[in-house]
């Protein structure tokens, strides 16, 4: 064993990530993980990592909490409150609620797409640590579900408001594609959308290929042996394995494929709207019931997954013996928090318009504003 230890110490990697470790394992059929861990005592801590402030730092975790809290509070909770407890202010509240949902959808998209793209880059170009992979797989799914929740409700509220003027007669599936980019002349639709499509497509394939190798059956035995060798980290590695079993590559890939298709379909939307054959509609009561059930269910799923991700983060930080970098504030963390300032400004604007409706509309009323003053029929 001493000879093995001496030889292993000669080749202990200084920068050991998951991919590097798997390459070491698969490069030699006789590679012994237990002997390697004994020879290189820093292996377990290196594979665990010290966190990543731009992925799981305190700042971005605050941003995740804002995203989840706002999506649930102004999503299914606000909708059910407005629907179940009508007030004399409904004529004004529903249009304002639609505006809040519009802003919430756009801010969710502006936060979800960059994080997902960054995850693809991290998995494709670097050798991420155990903690980075497990945390990212959970958090990207959480963000995608938040985006889905607010999109579904915004479709419902917007089409109901238009229906109150006789413009529609049910829920149009075209809204599912159109909603985030309702202003087709906006810079986000013309420039950022195609860039996001190209970026996601470029990094999706290498990420998927790398993930299949990393999370496939071939590495299961490697994980189990590593857990036994690094018995100090057994609890954390057990949680990591469970997280990966829940967030398999196919589900994660489908999320990004569907979002890429969503963006790519924008040029076809206006043409489809001109033909009634493409306006597939379902009855409004059924649409409302389905929308509420979908949003409530996925909101519960979001809370459950995010709670698990925070438990995993706390366990990892405890294992790092105070060496974690996740509590250090950085540029990316501050940007992530301030990304939600537009939503705060929209909420303040709506609060002012509720208290002073005439003053808020004075001098800036448009035909669209006149339409927005009509309540949803009950």
Automatic annotation (TrEMBL):
It comes from the Eukaryota. The lineage of its organism: Eukaryota, Fungi, Dikarya, Ascomycota, Pezizomycotina. Signal peptide: none annotated. The chain crosses the membrane at residues 58-82, 109-127, 133-157, 187-209, 254-273, 285-307, 329-348. The keyword Membrane applies. This is Transmembrane protein. The keyword Iron does not apply. Keywords: Membrane, Transmembrane, Transmembrane helix. It comes from Cercophora newfieldiana.
